[in-house]
Amino acid sequence: MYNCVTCWLDEAAARFPDKVAFADKNTSYTFFQVRQRALSIAYQIRAKLGAGKQPVAVYMDKSADMLVAYLGIAYSGNFYSPVATDMPPARAGKILAVLKPAVAVCDPKYRDDCGTGKRFPFEGDILVYQDFCGKAYDEKEVEGMTETVVDTDLLYVLFTSGSTGDPKGVAVSHRSVLDYIDWVTETFRITEKDSFGNQAPFYFDNSILDIYSAVKCGATLYIIPEDLFSQPVKLLEYLQDRQVTTIFWVPSALIVVARLRALKYVDLSHTLKRVLFCGEVMPNKQLNIWRKFLPDVVYANLYGPTEITDACTCYIIDREFSDDEPLPIGKPMKNTDILVLKDDNTAVIGTERGELCVRGTGVAAGYYNDPVRTAEVFIQNPLNHAYPEVIYKTGDIVHYNEYGELVYVCRKDFQIKHLGHRIELGEIETAVSAVEGVDSCCCLYDEVHKKIVLFLDRPLKRDYINGQLARMIPDYMYPDKVVVMKRLPINANGKIDRVRLKEFL
Fold it and tell me: Which strands, in side-by-side order, build the sheet including 451-456?
């Protein structure tokens, strides 16, 4: 029985001491080195804090060292919360006000950025990673720290933005991650012979799969340089050179590779085994290009918000799809249950649409230091009146298809009332994505002028778009306005930045 994720690192370091665990463009660490450095960090943090179960802010660049810091914090019996180094000071200040950490770990180059009125407005103790990592420690004392951890203690708090833009700290326990990674590694048969090519930022929940699957199985995690994602051929050559077997990327990254036909120039057929994706809708048009060039790879669409530990449903692609079909998000993961509820909190019947709600160990503990917003979406299961049982309301509208698979429609707050019709903007995006010549698109509703606005990265006229849509959606769903941009803005997590696009309405 495991009580915390560091148990996996203990085992990996014993089984594969000399194998590379984490590698970035400058540094690589073996599992033995990761464990030794993490134990040293744990010892120093505990000396500062004196107790466990406290937040530790991490202000570091994405690197192998950042992952070592995470594991050191976990060994100390505390929990980590990353703050992006390129984050505006005002937002960083909001996060720190919610988190209230007593200690922060930072890179030496950011030491002078820390303090009141500075880029990282933190007033507590600063531990400069390179100064204290590697110092002497008492291993028995650190082991005593982890023995006091129970699996419902927090492992991390990741901050996301709500509809108001105010950050919400999603608090996730060791148990949630242990359960999720057990499912991932069993389902996709991950072993020590595998390696991961990481795309997701380490403050984004998609990174959880990469980090902890590697630690559990003794697999190597390669941190792909960010600039390669704008150079698709070099990106695939990177995967080939390092014999990366597994990638878990946001669809936007996969779309760029497909759009620029990079798969024609780099043969990954003897390298890549799994292509997993999550975070936004994956258009079948681009997925079909991947499947054409790499037909023997396992493709899987994972779905889930940060509040349920990265993902809660999965669809392993097992049949052909036309370009204009929506890709299912599949069925619940093991030890997870999905409730699809109507507005009156009763279960849908057949193919009726409703809000996807989740119950199970993957459900987060709530929003850190935010009981009001926690109570809004982490609610008592309305189908269970016998005992306390919390479920999470995702705000996503879904329905079941004829195969009993869940199909994502759109966000609940993306539903609009237009020309007397209730419309899901996600349906329009799915249809437009299938139009010849379209690579990336996004639909928003202009409430002031009552218009459906379509954003494209290709100079296609509205008449052409609407003519192509005639076979897919009713005319009241056609875009009223098309805005062409050289490139749709992407947020830090690699998704289309809808907040930025609202500025162009």
Answer: 441-446, 451-456, 481-484
| 21/29 Cα distance (integer angstroms) | 6
Q: pTM for the full model?
A: 0.87
- Interstrand relation of 220-223 and 195-198 (parallel, antiparallel or unpaired): parallel
CB 206 within 8 A of CB 236: no
Residue 241 token pair: 């050179």
Question: What phi and psi values does residue 260 have, to the nearest 5 degrees?
Answer: -90, 10
For residue 280, what is the DSSP state?
S
Of 298, 284, 238, 261, give the one whose Cα is nearest residue 434. Answer: 284
Distance CA 35, CA 29 (A): 10
β-pairing, 313-316 with 298-303? antiparallel
What is the number of alpha carbons within 13 Å of residue 18 lying toward its C-beta?
0
User: Which residues lie below 8 Å from residue 383, measured CB to CB, with a gap of 6+?
Assistant: 339, 345, 347
- Nearest CA to 34 out of 72, 60, 8, 1 is that of 72
Sign of CA dihedral 266, 440, 230, 300: negative
Cα dist from 423 to 352, 361, 397, 413, 427, whole Å? 15, 34, 12, 11, 8
How many residues appear in the chain? 505
pLDDT (tens, 9 = 90+) of the chain, 505 residues, equals 899 999 999 999 999 999 999 999 999 999 999 999 999 999 999 999 988 999 999 999 999 999 999 999 999 999 999 999 988 888 899 999 999 998 999 999 999 999 888 999 998 999 999 888 878 888 888 888 999 999 999 999 999 865 445 789 999 999 999 999 999 999 999 999 999 999 999 999 999 999 999 999 999 999 999 999 999 999 999 999 999 999 999 998 999 999 889 999 999 999 999 999 998 889 999 999 999 999 999 999 999 999 999 999 999 999 999 988 889 999 999 999 999 999 999 999 999 999 999 999 999 999 999 999 999 999 999 999 999 999 999 999 999 999 999 999 888 877 777 777 778 788 888 889 889 888 889 999 988 888 899 999 889 988 899 889 988 887 888 999 999 998 899 887 778 888 889 888 8
Q: In sequence order, which ranges of 434-478 are alpha helices (DSSP H)?
A: 462-469
d(CA 260, CA 389): 48
Strands 354-360, 336-341: pairing is antiparallel
Distance CA(17)–CA(31), nearest Å, equals 5
Residue 47 near residue 38, CB atoms below 8 Å: no
Helix runs in 200-334, H state only: 207-217, 232-241, 251-259, 284-293
CA 78 – CA 95 distance, rounded (Å): 18
Q: Is 315 helix (H, G, I), strand (E, B) or coil?
A: strand
Per DSSP, the three-state class of 402 is: coil
Which residues is 347 bridged to in the sheet? 341
